[in-house]
Amino acid sequence: MNDNDIVLKVEEIYKSFGDTEVLRGVSFDVRRGETKVFIGPSGTGKSTLLRCINQLTIPDRGRVWLDGEEVTNSGARINYFRQKIGMVFQNFFLFDHLTALKNVELALLKVKGMGKAEAREKALTELRQVGMEDWADHYPAELSGGQAQRVSIARALAMDPDVILFDEPTSALDPELTREVLEVMKKLARNGMTMLVVTHEMGFACSVANEVLFMENGVVAEQGPPDLLLNDPRFTRMKDFIGRIDSRMDD
Amino acid sequence: MDQAVFLFEILLPALMQGLVVTLQLIACSAPFGLAFGIAVAVGRQYGHPVISWLCKTFVFLIKGTPLLLLLFILYFGLPSIGITLTAFAASVLGFILCNSAYNAEYIRGALISIKDGQMVAARSLGMTRWQAIKSVILPQALRRAIPGLSNEFIYLIKYSSLAYMLTVIELAGAGKQVATKYFLYTESFAAVGVVYLVLVSITTVAVSILEKRVAVPGTVRATPSAQL
Fold first, then answer.
1. Helix (H) or strand (E) run with residue B16 in it
2. Which of A112, B52, B89, B156 could form a disulfide with B85 if both were Cys (CB 3.0 to 4.6 A apart)?
3. CB–CB of B139/B104 below 8 Å?
């Protein structure tokens, strides 16, 4: 594995909110086409970590590199990097006043400076990718959660990002809608999209992730391919955590 | 003198002339009042701390003093520092300042009501703060501000009568002139009131049409929740 394959480099990220140390030195490399899944109890900094990568939250220390260029401390150039680092949110955050199509078009027009016809074409292509082409003229309030999340994935895809960050993309959805969103994400992974996913969906982690990072107390506690973390007796903490979730579900 | 002759040959023609001036005052004030109001609200909410403070102070001063005082300063006070405005210009300037300060507060309320996620999502796509405000936040906030803004527009229609105090013969002033000349106060002022009522009614209907036209499909919950 040579260095050229590494698309995203995260080095020693620290972040505190007041007295609470949320991230305490997180580092990892992401290879092109890889899917990394972040798992762990709530409040262990997984979402903050994703936000530190595209600088929606500014880390106290540490650096992020995209394709060899520094994302941290990049000043106004951050808007360039954010085009290259897509993000999908737990609560979708679609632009409420715009149709699905216009949601996808907006940044193409304003940020990429595309012409109207080209942007429309591109937006429709991305909506087709996520199976939402027929809903192009509907507004967010008219969509189910699963549909809205698929539109938000199309919106991120339209910028042709090098990597997409998924921040608990299915946590606001019921199991049926979760499945339709995960299907789209699996398809993206198969097509070679580089993805960082914060999720509690173990099934998705096991079937799609190249690597799982188990986070606890602001650090990566365990890290490796899902099979290894689940089956190798040397790894215990993630299994404990999953055990706790399962027993809670049995209650 | 015959009532009908007074009404149709004296009062109404005078009021119509005054109405034209009132409409001119409103037409010259409202667009700038809205534009400046948006600027002040955005400046206060999203601007550099100095800009934000300036916007806040501006609103505070306008809210805290009578409009009539502002008009007097603009018309009678400014000449002492070498700025002489016509009565019409001084009135329009005063109305713009007053209208924009109140509009700014309605718009600021609407800006605050837009969830953070809208800005976060816009920025995550690489939009600048300004692009996000212009293309994502303001279009939503202005929709929510329509009821407040229309209220302020109705106030403008009515406080435009203060221009009379600067010798602009607008609707109320025209009524006053006829009333004094013919000693028919009740009839004259009642007629003036009816014209204002008509103006406000037209505005109310126009605003409700506008609200329906710009409503975002799927978000109009007024009826169902009103039935709860």
1. helix B12-46
2. B89
3. no
**What is the domain range of residue B196?**
3-227
Provide the pLDDT confidence category of residue B224 given band limits of 50, 70 and 90: low
Q: B interface toward A at CB cutoff 8 Å? A: 117-118, 120-128, 131, 135-136, 139-140, 143, 216-219
- C-beta of residue B119 within 8 angstroms of C-beta of residue B136: yes
pLDDT tens profile A76-126: 999 999 999 999 999 999 999 999 999 999 999 999 999 999 999 999 999
Q: Is the distance from CB of A157 to CB of A103 less than 8 angstroms?
A: no
Q: Which residues make Cβ contacts (< 8 Å) with residue A110, sequence separation at least 6?
A: B127, B131, B135
Number of domains in chain B: 1
Q: Is the pLDDT of residue A247 over 70?
A: no
CB B88 within 8 A of CB B124: no
Question: Given CA atoms B38, B39, B41, B42 in this order, what sign does their dihedral have?
Answer: positive
Interface predicted TM-score of the whole assembly (ipTM), two decimals: 0.93
What the block records as the tokens of A234 is: 């040397």
Domains of chain A: total: 1
With contact defined as beta carbons under 8 Å apart, do A21 and A60 qualify? no
Distance from CA of B219 to the nearest CA of A (A): 6
